[in-house]
Amino acid sequence: MSTVSSSKLLKTVPGFLISAFFLWYTFKGISPAQFRSLRIVSPVWILGLVGFGIVSYTLRCVRWHRMMRSTGASLLTCSRVFMTSLAANNILPLRIGDIMRIFTYAPDLNTTPSVIMSTILLEKLLDIFVLVSLFTLFLGPNASPHSRLLAHGLMAFSVIGLAVLLLGARTLDAPLRRLFTRLPKKPIIEKLEHWVLLALECIRNIGVAGSLLLLVQSIIIWSCEGLQFYSAARILGVQSSPIGPWQAVSTANFAFLIPSSPGGIGPFEWATQTAMVSHGADPSQAALYALALHVWMLITITGVGGAMFLAHRIRNTMRKPLLEEIETLPAEMP
Length: 334
Known about the structure:
It is found in: Cell membrane. The protein is mostly helical. Helices cover 75% and strands 0% of the residues. The chain has helices at 3-27, 32-36, 46-67, 75-91, 96-102, 113-137, 145-182, 187-236, 244-254, 267-278, 283-315, 322-327.
């Protein structure tokens, strides 16, 4: 094994340890008998779980295709690259799926890594705005005044920030460049400047109307995600407030910010359980619900993305092996 490969492998160890801790913390009070007691209570809601999942991820592909319209890439190509990157994130460490989307598949999309990076930044900004909104709207009744104040502050900040970005992108470039020139010349500052300017360029290219359409699509995407969480709760008969699964959507996705093993295993279960318990769910039942839902999402997303990846490679036998592609990827985002 090369020195570079050994170094990358060592970087994954803390993530697996963090995942192990969160899994232990979430399931430490649950007996094997409780795991075996997990049952499907309302099978009709499986239709909702599957249907809303299809709508959510189809619309994610459509949204990214809209962002990539200037490159001329087809919807099928954008969908394949997008779903492949999600599948890779679920099974490979260090968010390699995102890095592959930027670098490995740039030739497939007829563009440069910087252009792809700008669309991913815009994608993340839109997602964060909607998730912060869900978190604020569906706070549990037992949330402290401090938590509510913080949530509403984040909500106001994200609304103002997104409005400024979407409506004022054409006028922000020069002021931001002047601002960054006054800041210390440090690598992290230079990288932040690069990312911010890339996102602004992407928004300018899409236009105000196009950006607002992306925002509407993002709201629908995360509404479908919320309905997936709600459907899963009904399938398993989890007793909680109806808005519990909606807050679980935001907390579970913010949990991906915690460094862990591929797929967010551990933090996802802990965050989902915490949200459901805050809305009246039994802790053991909420933990099993989180585990079952996460397993379902990992299998379906990885399965669909992996199938699209394999189908493409079968049609293009001249491509080099995946492990060789991963070895040539840069260690960090541009």
